[in-house]
Amino acid sequence: MTGAAGTGFFTALSLILAIGAQNSFLLRQGLLRSHVFILVLFCAISDTILIITGVIGFGAVVSLYPAVLIGMSLLGATFLFTYGVMRLKAAWLGDYVMELACQGMELRPALWMIFACTWLNPHVYLDTLVLIGAVSTQYESSEKLAFGFGASIASFIFFFSLGYGARLLAPIMQTPFTWRVLDVTICGIMWIIAIGLVLNLVTH
Fold first, then answer.
1. Is the pLDDT assigned to residue 169 strictly greater than 90?
2. Tens of pLDDT along 63-108?
3. Per-residue confidence at 44, pLDDT binned at 50, 70, 90?
4. Which secondary structure element, helix H or strand E, spans residue 55, and what is its range?
5. How far, in Å, CA of 36 to CA of 160, rounded?
6. How far apart, in Å, are the Cα atoms of 110 and each of 170, 189, 195?
7. Sign for the pseudo-dihedral over CA of 152, 18, 70, 116
8. Cβ atoms of 180 and 88 closer than 8 Å
């Protein structure tokens, strides 16, 4: 059972380490020290719900009904492209008065944004429902529960580390230029992921 939990832990950790919309938004909020606890808690709980669902067997459902995955991919690509445009616009305008003063957005819009980054992000579903769900099929009963528990613990550790660890970068985020670099980088990553999603649909 310990082995199953360890496998779940490292499987989940390896999947969520990649920078995506969710992680980049948490990084930004962590730098601003804005609503960090509630946002990382939301991400961790959301991941846990999706992981449990994947372990229960949602991966099999997606295999039977691939149109579900196609729809999520198209919706996710649209969101990622739009989010990239938002970050590119911010870099172009260069108005980082609030960021330099360490003032983030209010809680409600921040929650809406993290909700979109999480539940409209096809990579979240692919990682938690499909991939983690697929890996869990090698286990049965209690070992499968241990696998899901280990994966969920990895999610909590990662998101809290990202949210609160981001402040270590604060000393270098003291100029509009560094915020521009961050936003342009995020924009590029979002567009690359969005293009990859569309190309994956076209080639398959």
1. no
2. 676 676 677 667 767 877 887 888 888 888 877 655 555 566 788 8
3. very high
4. none
5. 8
6. 20, 20, 26
7. positive
8. no
For CA atoms 108, 112, 114, 119, the dihedral sign is positive
| Separation of alpha carbons 27 and 163, rounded Å | 6
- DSSP letters, 28-68, are HHHHHT-SHHHHHHHHHHHHHHHHHHIIIIIHHHHHH-HHH
The structure's pTM equals 0.70
Q: What is the phi/psi pair of residue 121, to 5°?
A: -100, 110
Show the DSSP H helices in 94-140 as ranges.
97-100, 107-119, 122-125, 133-136
Residue 67 tokens read as 């149109």
Q: Give the span between the Cα atoms of 23 and 121, in whole angstroms.
A: 11
Question: What is the percent of the chain where pLDDT is above 70?
Answer: 76
Q: Quote the CA–CA distance of 56 and 90 in Å, as a whole number.
A: 41
Length of the chain, in residues: 204
